Amino acid sequence: MNPENEENQHRGAIPPALPVKLADLVEYAEGAVVSRTIAKSEKGTLTVFAFDTEQELSTHSAPFDAYVQILDGDVEITIGEQKLQPEVGETVLMPADVPHALRALSPFKMFLIMIRG
User: Fold this and answer.
1) Domain spans of the chain?
2) Cα separations (Å) of 92 from 3, 31, 44, 104, 106?
3) Low-confidence residues of the chain: pLDDT under 70
4) What is the DSSP code string of 39-89?
5) 80/19 Cα distance (integer angstroms)
6) pTM of this prediction?
7) What's the pLDDT at 34?
8) 83 contact partners, CB below 8 Å, separation of at least 6
9) What b/e readout covers 30-47, taking b as 16+ CB neighbours within 10 angstroms?
10) In CATH, what number does 26-115 get?
């Protein structure tokens, strides 16, 4: 495989065999949500997000589990009727088929792991 095709196949991914800080993969944008998918397959996706203050993902559910690791900032996560404010470094499971939402209380970054199965 030629290197150019290999690079295109891994676009968005992190470089192999090199440490990266996930929070550095996306930048904040005023009034916006920015995302970068670093892996995607039929089994799931890995995505890094940056939310400006008050940006949100409205209430929805998914047919598979989603894990959110807080990388930076402050967020309110609602899962079912429960409201959480996890801290940087903590991870939260949003279970399959349970409505959930996220709202940035300050500029906020997260690593989202979705597993289909």
Assistant:
1) 26-115
2) 38, 25, 17, 15, 18
3) 1-12
4) EEETTEEEEEEEE-TT-EEEEE--SSEEEEEEEES-EEEEETTEEE-PPTT
5) 36
6) 0.88
7) 98
8) 76, 77
9) eeebbebebeeeeebbbb
10) 2.60.120.10
